[in-house]
């Protein structure tokens, strides 16, 4: 379960997030798996640079954090990502960028810092065989990576 769901000191947590973003530039907020829903994570802080926040679903916390930190650094120091981009990573899966349909429905703490008009992109990752979650054979039919927007094919 996520900290937000269990937290009794939300204003204090938001204050700590604001300080962490000011200190480091961005943070990664993880959300644990719950029932049929896999774990997921998102950045908080890229909105402060005029960039969309980044999201990944279906990866364990450490892998999600590593992927999001890599992509956040690239987005700050290179051309911005756009929906439909395929991004090869040296030490990670190939990802395809999908624009979130409703970022404010999923990125509660980014909304707390930047408001409900934030933008977000999901880093959708291929499985070990290079298959995507919109393919019926993704992870041999096991699923586990919800896509939070509509895929834009280029």
From TrEMBL:
Protein's recorded name: DUF4262 domain-containing protein
């Amino acid at each position: 379960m996520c900290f937000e769901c269990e937290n009794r000191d939300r204003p204090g947590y938001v204050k700590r997030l604001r300080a962490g973003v000011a200190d480091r530039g961005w943070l990664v907020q993880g959300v644990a798996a719950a029932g049929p829903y896999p774990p997921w994570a998102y950045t908080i802080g890229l909105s402060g640079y005029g960039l969309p926040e980044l999201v990944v679903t279906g990866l364990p916390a450490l892998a999600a954090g590593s992927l999001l930190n890599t992509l956040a650094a690239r987005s700050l120091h290179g051309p911005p990502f756009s929906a439909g981009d395929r991004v090869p990573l040296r030490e990670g899966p190939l990802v395809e960028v999908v624009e979130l349909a409703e970022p404010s429905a999923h990125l509660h703490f980014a909304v707390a810092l930047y408001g409900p008009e934030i933008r977000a992109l999901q880093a959708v990752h291929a499985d070990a065989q290079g298959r995507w979650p919109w393919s019926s054979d993704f992870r041999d039919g096991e699923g586990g990576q919800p896509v939070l927007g509509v895929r834009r094919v280029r």
